[in-house]
Amino acid sequence: MNKNFSNPMDGSCSIPADYAAVIMAAGGGTRFHSGSHKLLTRIDGKPILIHTVERVLSAGYRTVIVVLGYQAEALAALLQDIPVEIVLNKNWERGQSTSLQKGVLHLPEGTRSACLVLADQPFVSINTYRALARQQEEQPDKIIMPTYKGETGNPTMFPQLTFAELRSQSAADSGGRRLLKKYETCLLETNDPYVIRDIDTLEDFRKYTEN
Fold first, then answer.
1. What is the pLDDT of residue 208?
2. Is residue 7 one of the residues assigned to a domain?
3. 48, 102, 156, 185: least buried by Cβ within 10 Å?
4. CATH of residue 34
């Protein structure tokens, strides 16, 4: 493991061992018109995908599943020395919910909560990941979503009671939105602007690199 990752056993992290993270990195990034995969694009010398994965690991997640699709081989090469499980979504063109399904299907038995992470949100704070997990512990049957200045963002914590529906959800749905209407949701206000910022376009990328 990269020496910069925190040791989840050192007492400083608050992610329970039976929580998992699912990083959705399968999309084609069609709005990012650069000629290359947006997750391969570098910020401070490091690919966007690696920034995201390292944040999740440093927060203290022991189980991290990365769902790949478009240009999976190139992205998998970045992850070969990082302690994550790679899952291939051959149906990535059918929408984000297919990646959600794939990731949840590969959760270890006994997983109590899954943190669903967008791969193009590389700078969500480690403290935000931990705060979401703490809130899930306090409200184990609720979906936990972060907000910033009242605007809802990601990553999102889905408790175990939602897993069956996440596994069977129609590809016509967009991610877990249908479940947000069915299950009670807790909105956790944060001071983290990156929960509402992802990198969809080159303009988004420029804003990241300017900060």
1. 60
2. no
3. 185
4. 3.90.550.10
